[in-house]
Structures are given as C-alpha cells and as structure tokens.
Amino acid sequence: MTAPDLSTARLLWQTGDWPALARQPVAIPGRGSATPEQIERALYRLQALSLTGATDEARRLSAALQAGGVSRQALGRALLSGAGSALARARLINGQSDLARHSLARAIALNPEAGDTALVQAMRFENEQRRLAAHHTAPPARLPYIDVIGPSGSGKTTLLKALAKQEGLAPLSKPDPSRIAANDASQKMFGFMLAHPEFVRSVSEALASTHESERLKVFLEDVLFRYLSATPVAGTLYLFDEGFVCRANSLFAYADGLLDEDAVRRYLRSTPMPLALVMLQEHPDTCMGRLVTRPKGLPQRMQTMRNHERTQALQKMARISIMAGEALREISVPVIQISPGMSVEEATERVITALTEERLHH
Question: Is 225 within the bounds of a domain?
Fold first, then answer.
C-alpha cells in the first residue's frame, strides 16, 4: 500500500474516519530527515491508532517519531487531541451535544494546521452522529475489585501476595496479547471510554501537564487491559495491584512543585470505583528505608531523582493515600486502614475481617 498524500490523511482526520486513517502506512525517516508533511501525517495516524485500540502499533509509531526528532510536546498534543475526540464521542452518546461540540473544538484546536476549527468540528460532529446511530457499544460491566494504595515501599505488593492466597480473592494479571485480541480490546476500550469519559480526560490532562505523554499509552495498556480483559467469576473479588486508585501516585506524586490536590480529586472521582480500598499508612522515612535496601532497588522513576526529590514524592504519595480514603468514604466505599508497623499476617487478617464484616467476602 502506498503512503497517502497529506490531503488524504488530513481529510480522514477531519472527518474522524479513524479505522481508515489507522490503516494508512506512514514511513518515518531518520532523525532530522522527516519532512513536516510526513510528521503531520504520522501524528494524525498516531491519534487513529490510539482511538482504535492498536496500542502496540501506536507505541512503535511514537518511538519512531521520537527517534526522528519529533518533540514530546508534539506527541503530547496528538495524544491529548485523540483523548478529546474520545471524550466528545462519549458525551455525544450520553446526549450531551453541547459538551461534545466543546470537546471536539478543543481536540481540533490542538492541530491548527488541519483547517478551520469550526468547519472541521461541524463535519466531525455530523459524522459521529451518523456512526453512533448505526452502531452502539455497551459499556463494560463493572468488575468487583479491591484497590490498594500507599506510598512506594509501604508493602502493597507484599500484602497483595498474601491476600491472593485467600479463598475467593484473585489477582488481576496482565493478559497476553492473544487473550487481548480474543476479547476484542478495541471494542472494550471504546466501551470503557463511553462509561468513563472524565477518566480519559483527567488522565490525559495530568500527563500532558507533566510532558509525559508517552506514559499515557503505558498507563492505559497496563491498567485498562487488566481491568477489561478479566471475566468476572461469581463469588470472586479481584485484587488490583497498581489499580485505578493507586495510579494516582504515578500521575501526580512525581510532578514538579506542590501537589495539585484539585487535579487529584478530579481523577479520583472519575475512576471505576472499587468495592473496597485498602490503605497502607506508613511514614515516608520508613518507606524510603525499605526502598533503598530491598533487592530490586528503587522504583524506576526514582532512580534518577535526588534524595530530597524522592522524599517529596513519598510525602505526596502519603497525602494522596489520605485523599483517596476521604474521597471513597464520601461515596460509601469501605476503606480498610492498615496501621504502621502491622505485620503481613496482621494486615491480611485485618483485610479479611473487614471484607467479611462488609459482606464482600464469603
């Protein structure tokens, strides 16, 4: 298949024909040799790949673009534009036409070279209405899961391993690619976006503000694929290591400056809520001592940080844990607190007892 000219790729993007745009090949030459036209075509296709669930191919294209000299800011704008298009579609499904138009306008404005924003918005809006009238995807069923939050080094993974040995509790494992394909990841991802449009927006905005757009694909792939590929089994509660609530640490604790508590609250309100939250309370100094002495060493993102930056990140995580507990209590989600100094056996018994009292575990 020959590469499309820029006008063809731009028209597919303007009309929102993501499947057709995702099928268009794009060649990215080496660093510094890609033309502006090649880069523009590739950024359009990157949005289409993300919106159609082709995350592996999107990652490869993103890596090729970075190797070709495309800035992270440009990649971030493309991914944020794609997320805005998904949010517009979700709002249109929910009957929020005015909000859908607003989301489309913001998404389109991130691509100023694509033409008149108002004209493209009108064209995209009309086409989305026609497509959604012909095909509706139901949102995925809610998965009964338990999230665990606490600073790095507080013992989350250790506790989860102990809980996984209990009857009726099972870890959410990352599925292999063949299982993802069999479960139709693209359709499930779209259904999730319809059910949780504010989640898509809050994640995109958080990552765009820290110029870590590449982490958006990693975030979606790691968290959503585990959540969406699981088949609920009656009587089973799923243990979510690094789940939606806990991922607030990854999104906000490493950002420069003070913790953006308003953004954290928006994110926490947007996630698929767990049936219960286990909150590990441990002092940041204790967590740091464990991190520097454990066999696998520091978390990857801390390895290049100075000591005071690591301490600040752990302090933010401790604050995020408290905020998560407060947010979930407000909507009557049970929060199980694990006090500092508790042994793994004591913490496991505390969780099982609390789940039984809440009638979540049998």
Answer: no
The reply to whether 121 and 264 lie within a common domain is no
Q: How far is CA 171 from CA 147, 160, 267, in A?
A: 11, 8, 24
Residue-wise burial string across 84-103, b where 16 or more C-beta atoms lie within 10 A, e elsewhere: bbbbbbbbbbeeeeebbbbb
Cβ atoms 52, 61 nearer than 8 A: no
Supply the CATH number for residue 253's domain: 3.40.50.300
Domain range for 104 is 6-134
Q: Do 214 and 72 contact (CB within 8 A), yes or no?
A: yes
Distance CA 208, CA 294 (A): 32
Beta bridge mates, 168? none
pLDDT lower than 70: segments of the chain: 1-4, 29-33, 53, 55, 93-94, 114, 132-143, 172-191, 193-195, 207-221, 229-231, 360-362
Write out pLDDT tens, residues 168-224.
Answer: 777 765 444 444 443 445 556 666 766 677 787 777 777 666 555 556 556 666 777
**pLDDT digit string, tens, across residues 69-96:** 888 888 888 878 887 887 787 777 667 7
Q: How many domains does the chain have?
A: 2
Residue 141 has a CB neighbour count (10 Å cut-off) of: 10
pTM of the shown model: 0.63
Q: Of 108, 134, 160, which closes a domain?
A: 134
